[in-house]
Amino acid sequence: MIFNDKAAIITGAGQGIGFEICKLLADNGAKILLNDIDESLANLAAETIQKETGGICIALAGDSSDLVFINKMVDTAVGQFGRLDIVIANAGITLYGDFLTYSPEAFFRVMQVNLGGTFFLAQAAAKVMKEQSSGGALLRHRTPGTQKSGCLQHE
Ligand SMILES: NC(=O)c1ccc[n+]([C@@H]2O[C@H](COP(=O)([O-])OP(=O)(O)OC[C@H]3O[C@@H](n4cnc5c(N)ncnc54)[C@H](O)[C@@H]3O)[C@@H](O)[C@H]2O)c1
Questions:
Q1: Is 25 among the domain residues?
Q2: Bridge partners of 88?
Q3: How many domains does the chain have?
Q4: How far is the CA of 94 from the centre of ligand 1 (A)?
Q5: Does 65 contact ligand 1 (Cβ within 6 A)?
Q6: How far is residue 20's CA from residue 13's CA, in Å, rounded to a whole number?
Q7: Which among 20, 21, 37 is the best mutation to test ligand 1's pocket, defined by most ligand atoms within 8 Å of the CB?
Q8: Residue 52's domain spans which residues?
Q9: Strand (E) positions, the chain?
């Protein structure tokens, strides 16, 4: 299994793409910290993955763009798994609205979750990966063709 002994955090993974990524990683031996802002979704998703893959998947519900919670996710992963190798900032939101009346609150919430949550999770995780002195991957995926995929690599 290609991710044996690897530990991963995936945000916004209670359903959809993040959930499928968790399942794939768990199927291939990774230990997973599965995050979602919706606690019941997170718990159900982690339970399902454990049952279906026989792997280790723990749920941690919370807002992946909250700076205090970001550190909690990283500390929990390191505390439970002893290391951190893979971080996927999958949580993302779209708040639709009319351009002329779009509110600053909606605009800054989208920036906070999609940009801030990605940047500060990558930063917190990179510190751990640097300490470990082994490679790690920090990923943020985007729609192909509309924006370049984000990938920060630490050797
Ligand atoms: N589905 C697509 O076609 C598509 C295309 C391109 C990019 N994306 C991006 O991929 C990611 C996942 O897409 P999806 O379709 O699986 O989304 P989804 O809406 O099915 O799932 C996203 C999950 O993120 C959770 N979430 C939202 N805000 C959160 C927060 N602040 N903290 C933690 N969890 C939070 C939601 O509760 C939800 O369970 C998103 O970032 C989305 O923008 C999706």
A1: yes
A2: 10, 139
A3: 1
A4: 9
A5: yes
A6: 8
A7: 37
A8: 7-154
A9: 7-10, 31-36, 57-61, 86-88, 136-140, 150-154
**Could you tell me the strand order of the sheet in which 136-140 lies?**
57-61, 31-36, 7-10, 86-88, 136-140, 150-154
Structure tokens at 14: 């209670």
143-153 pLDDT tens trace = 544 444 444 45
Q: Which residues of 65-74 are buried (b: 16+ CB within 10 A; e: fewer)?
A: bbeebbebbb
Q: By the 8 A CB rule, do 60 and 42 touch? A: yes
- CA 74 – ligand 1 centroid, Å: 20
For residue 131, what is the domain's CATH number?
A: 3.40.50.720
82 lies in some domain? yes
Q: Give residue 82's pLDDT.
A: 96
Q: Whose CA is nearest to atom 19 of ligand 1?
A: 16
Is residue 1 in some structural domain? no
Task: Give the residue carrying structure tokens 């599965």.
Answer: 34
Residue at 90 is within a domain: yes
Token pair recorded at residue 30? 């990774």
Ligand 1 centroid – CA 133 distance (Å): 31
pLDDT in tens, 7-28: 999 999 999 999 999 999 999 9
Whether the CB of 113 sits within 6 Å of ligand 1: yes
